Every structure is written in C-alpha cells, then in structure tokens.
C-alpha cells in the first residue's frame, strides 16, 4: 500500500507532558520537571513533520495557560492548527506526568473534563479534506461525546474526498465509560478504516478476548481494510494485507522509557508509505523510529529527524528477528 502524498490531517489531542528531571528520577522524589508537547495525535504530527511531511491537527484545547502552551508547541514544531479551537468553561487540557525510567515506570495522566472531547461536528465540517492525502485518527478521540460523533463525521467527509482512513487504536481505559462501550466503538471505527495499527493488547481488547487479537486484525482486513499492523512489543509485528502477511522484528536500543513508541511508529510508517517505500521497509522505518524515541527523553522532542532516522537505519545490519 502507498499513499499519494505526505499531507496528513490528524484528529485528536494535544497536551502537556511533564518529565521528572534528571532522567531516572521518580515522580515522588522530583523537584524539577521538563515540559514538552504531549498527546498521541500531536506526537504523531511531530513525527511526520520531522520526517519531512505536513501535518494539520483537528482538536480542542483549553482556553488557559496549558492550552496556550500546547498551541505554542504546535507552532514551534510546524504543525498546522487552523482547526484547533480553544474552549473555555471547565474544560481542561490533557496533562501527563511521565517518568524517564524503565524499572517501576510510572505515568500519571489527567483527563478530567478533557478539552479535546469538546470537538464537534462543526469543527470537522470546517475542514477542506481535498487538501490532504490521508486522515489519521487516534482512538482516544472516540471515548466521549461530542468528539466521538465528530470523528465519525470526519470519516464520512474524508471518505467522500477520497482520503484513506488510518486508525491508531490507542486504547486508554481511563477515558472510557466502560470496556464494552470501547470495544463496540473501536470495532465500528476499525470496520470503516483502510489502515488499522495497534498492539496485541489493543487488538485483543477489540476482539473481546486477548488471545484473539491477531484473528481480529486478520478479520478487519478480510472485511475490507487494506492493511493492519499487529504490534507485539519485543516480538516485532505482523503486518496483514489482503494478499499476505509480513513478519518483522525490532531494532535493539538502550531504552530509557517505554512511552512514545506507538506514536513514533505511526509517524515512521505513514511517512514511509507516502514516500513510496515497499511495505516491509515502511514498517521497519516505523520500528526504527520507535526504537529511537524510547531511548530519548520526552516524546515529541524525541522524534527523529529525517537525517537522524536515515543514519540510524544505515548503522543497523538488520532488525532483531521476530
């Protein structure tokens, strides 16, 4: 599968991440923190832009200092925010406190009254979808109304404009009213999309049985998806298409933290597809980007540039076997 260009419209949240500093510090022991852009959709946008693509975000942020921080960071990274709306009242921006450590890693995420859930159908209807080459949606956007209905409306409008729909499952249990609701909504979204990317736990959750995750990914392709990527952490990934499956491994790295891998993988994958790489190479580019990000501090600032990713891949003899 290839994409016709590298202009991406991304639906989902932008927030603030706090990292206890220096790396390795437990949150409860910290006296200094490093702040950076967060939120899975914003992180994917950063990954795409740093690899030479174009990304515009559709979401809502809080009309306060934290929301303005997110807007400033989007500007700094060059992510288009013409369709990012500030909302007042009690809505608050997503905030995450994330440790740069592997052992006993702790992440505390604040999503009470999340501003990004205030996105409406009017927000997505204001977009000219013909200006883009693909729509990317992260699953958190589907966890509450009116954001959920807006996302499904965006699917309709993007499809009418001929855009492929790319779905990052991105399951965060704390955002959902129940597991049953989440599984149902995710399955409906997955059935509409051309590309579905998730890990073994996320596909297993969609299937209602963690042992049936790979079968769920295969079913989605059998039902019309063009591509599903079933990620298995250190065991690599299985990429499923209507014509066959590709098994790939991972790249060895000295990881500092477990976070950011999924967002960087998605950025590397879609950048590869837009550049015309063979599917296996596009998946491996995503895997390489993921390996680089977990070895660095932060998520958005850790995303590799095109030159950094190329240098990393040239230095590797081969990924570890799946």
Report on the structure:
The chain has helices at 40-50, 65-77, 121-125, 147-160, 179-192, 200-207, 213-222, 261-274, 279-293, 306-315; strands spanning 7-11, 15-21, 32-38, 54-62, 80-87, 95-98, 107-110, 134-138, 165-168, 195-199, 227-231, 237-241, 244-248. The longest helix is centred in the C-terminal third of the chain and has 15 residues, at 279-293. Strands 5-4-1-8-9-10-11-12-13 form a nine-stranded mixed β-sheet, with helices on both faces. Helix content is 35%, strand content 23%. The model has no long low-confidence stretch (mean pLDDT 95). By secondary structure, the chain is α/β, with parallel strands linked by helices.
What are the main properties of this structure?
nine-stranded mixed beta sheet, alpha/beta, 322 residues, four-stranded mixed beta sheet, single chain
How would you describe the shape?
globular
SSE run = EEEHEHEEEHEHEHEHHEEEHHH
Derived from helix and strand composition plus strand pairing, the structural class reads alpha/beta
Residue fraction in strands: 15-25%
Question: Gyration radius, to the nearest Å?
Answer: 18 Å
Strand runs, count: 13
Count every helix, treating DSSP H or I runs of 4 or more residues as helices.
10
Main beta sheet: 9 strands, mixed
Distance between the termini: 22 Å
Strand order of the largest sheet: 5-4-1-8-9-10-11-12-13
Helix content: 25-40%
pLDDT below 50 for ≥5 consecutive residues: which ranges? none
What value does the average pLDDT take?
95
């Amino acid at each position: 599968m290839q994409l016709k260009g590298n202009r991406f419209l991304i639906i989902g949240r932008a927030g603030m991440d706090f990292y206890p500093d220096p790396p390795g510090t437990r949150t409860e022991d910290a006296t200094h923190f490093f702040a950076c852009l967060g939120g899975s959709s914003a992180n994917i946008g950063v990954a795409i832009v740093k690899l030479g693509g174009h990304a515009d975000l559709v979401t809502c942020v809080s009309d306060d200092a934290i929301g303005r921080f997110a807007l400033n960071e989007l500007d700094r990274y060059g992510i288009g925010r013409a369709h990012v709306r500030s909302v007042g009242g009690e809505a608050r921006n997503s905030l995450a406190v994330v440790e740069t450590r592997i052992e006993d890693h702790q992440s505390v995420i604040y999503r009470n009254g999340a501003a990004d859930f205030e996105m409406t159908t009017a927000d997505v209807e204001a977009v000219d979808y013909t200006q883009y080459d693909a729509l990317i949606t992260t699953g958190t956007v589907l966890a509450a109304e009116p954001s959920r209905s807006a996302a499904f409306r965006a699917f309709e409008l993007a499809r009418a404009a001929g855009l492929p729909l790319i779905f990052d499952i991105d399951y965060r249990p704390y955002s959902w009213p129940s597991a049953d609701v989440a599984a149902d909504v995710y399955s409906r979204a997955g059935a509409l999309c051309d590309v579905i990317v998730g890990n073994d736990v996320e596909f297993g959750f969609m299937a209602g049985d963690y042992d049936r995750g790979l079968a769920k990914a295969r079913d989605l392709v059998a039902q019309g998806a063009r591509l599903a990527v079933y990620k298995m952490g250190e065991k690599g990934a299985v990429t499923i298409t209507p014509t066959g499956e590709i098994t790939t491994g991972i790249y060895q790295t000295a990881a500092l933290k477990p976070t950011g891998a999924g967002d960087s993988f998605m950025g590397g994958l879609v950048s590869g597809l837009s550049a015309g790489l063979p599917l296996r190479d596009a998946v491996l580019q995503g895997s390489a980007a993921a390996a680089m990000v977990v070895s660095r501090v932060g998520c958005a600032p850790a995303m590799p540039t095109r030159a950094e990713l190329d240098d990393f891949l040239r230095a590797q003899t081969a990924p570890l076997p799946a």
